[in-house]
Amino acid sequence: MFVALQFPFIDVRPFLQAETGRLTLPDWQSLQPDVDFVRSFGLVKRRLRGGIIEWPGEEMYCRALRALRFVNASAKLPADMGRGAAAALQHIAFRRFLADGAALARFEIGFAYRTAQQKVVRLRSKDFIALVRFVLSQEVLVPHDSSHKSCTLAEASQFLAKHYLRASQSLKAPPPEDWWVAPGDTLLLIEYDTWETDVLGFPKHARKVNSNILEKAEINLAHMWAEYKGKQVGVWLLGYVSADKANRDLLRRLRLSLFRLHAERESMARVFRLVGRKKIETKKGTPQTEQLQAYIDNGMRILSKQSYEGLPQSDILDAAYQAEDLVSEGERATLLTQLAGLRRNLLHNVEHFTSPNEETERVVYKYIDQRVTTQTITINNSTVGNIDQVAAEKVEDSFNEAALPNPDSKGPGEQASGQE
Questions:
Q1: Which of 35, 100, 166, 388 is most buried as measured by Cβ atoms within 10 A of its Cβ?
Q2: Burial group, residue 353, by CB count within 10 angstroms (0-12, 13-18, 19+)
Q3: What pLDDT, in 10s, does the model give residues 106-134?
Q4: DSSP secondary structure letters along 168-183
Q5: Averaging pLDDT over each range in 67-71, 146-150, 409-413, which range is the top one?
Q6: pTM confidence score
Q7: Where do the domains of the chain lie?
Q8: Strand, coil or helix: what is 118?
Q9: Could you report the per-residue pLDDT of 373-407, keeping only the tens digit for each?
């Protein structure tokens, strides 16, 4: 079993007319492994398995061991999780920082879970809920001013964003504004072998992605929402039956695409909001506005695709965000006004891309003390009350049943280790 967590950061300094003091190194467009580094994060390394065809810029990353430390790096899974899972230790597979040199940056952490005898962890369906809480509730330390900030992993994104902002600023520059680099919503992914984890189905309120290519590969993908310490977290559940060579490649492409799509969408949403709030000013002909236009063009092209190298992109986005608007109606009006003096085709595309969607609802699993509740949120911008309070030990009642894989259908292969 493999778990990965992403904190997306939106860095709008390239689009600001004022001098920000942002460092020009490392150059994210032409990184030199084992030479370039990010101050207070770590050294740039080459990915062992290289990049993927869908997404440029995945070949290099910055090792980020110094940016976040765990108080208990070898924590055990909760005692109430089944089939010997409580004996499994957590192993940190990686801590990485990646950026595209424009607005998009992200910090990612990978976890693997094994028992002392190197046996696989066998989870039940209801254990997904406990596992999400366990991951988010871990205590970590993030550099903060001249010391370290102690917080849960769920709360770490805001402190990591401030840490990166300071680390990427010239020491001679005036103090930066906090909003120049801000966190987006956290994303969590649980990847598991459906045979070895005894999974009977997804949580009741998870939205499954229906795709012929995934069904043919016997890969199940669903998305649900969780909330811990006031932070909403999107959770992907990625289950597979066979991990042969072809499926390992597909799983890796899918995993990286889920993370990249989330980061791209979070980045685009914040840039739109800041333009709409006139925090990012547009001045025709300036390098900053030209870069902004190129960023918006590229981002809309990416997020508008129905499929991407065979992956069901539109179905993935629909399952994750349920047609959630990128900007509010009022912000959209100001955004279009701010962009009116720029390229005509850009304005037309933004107008279409940000058109309001029909109102829908999202169910969120909330962790309160030792209880789990579900809350329905009306998208966009209004909240309906709790619809269903469930004691933690009764969470299994909220799962849909599905048949276990046929024992004879399991082919040879190895479980994903998280090493990419």
A1: 100
A2: middle
A3: 999 999 887 766 566 667 767 888 899 99
A4: TB-TTSPPPPGGGEEE
A5: 67-71
A6: 0.86
A7: 2-361+392-409
A8: coil
A9: 888 887 754 333 333 333 333 333 433 333 333 33
Q: Is 328 exposed, middle or buried (0-12, 13-18, 19+ CB in 10 A)?
A: middle
d(CA 82, CA 299): 43
CA 18 to chain centroid, in Å, comes to: 30
The answer to whether residues 23 and 171 touch, using CB atoms and an 8 Å cutoff, is no
Rounded to whole angstroms, what are the CA distances from 77 to 51, 87, 235, 270, 335?
Answer: 32, 7, 18, 35, 46
Give the pLDDT mean for 294-305. 90
- The token duo for 76 is 């055990």
Q: State residue 155's pLDDT score.
A: 95
pLDDT, average across residues 156-179: 94
Residue 400 CA to residue 199 CA, distance in Å, equals 11
Q: Quick one: pLDDT at residue 102?
A: 87
Contact 372, 129 (CB under 8 A): yes
Position 344, amino acid: R
In this structure, what DSSP letter does residue 66 have?
Answer: T
CA 260 to chain centre: 8
CB-based contact 112:1 (threshold 8 Å): yes
Segment 293-303 shows an average pLDDT of 92
Q: How far apart are CA 73 and CA 69, in angstroms?
A: 8
Q: What is the C-alpha separation between 259 and 223, in angstroms, rounded? A: 13
Residues 6+ apart with CB under 8 A from 386: 373, 374, 375, 376
Query: 392 exposed, middle or buried (CB, 10 Å; 0-12, 13-18, 19+)?
Result: middle
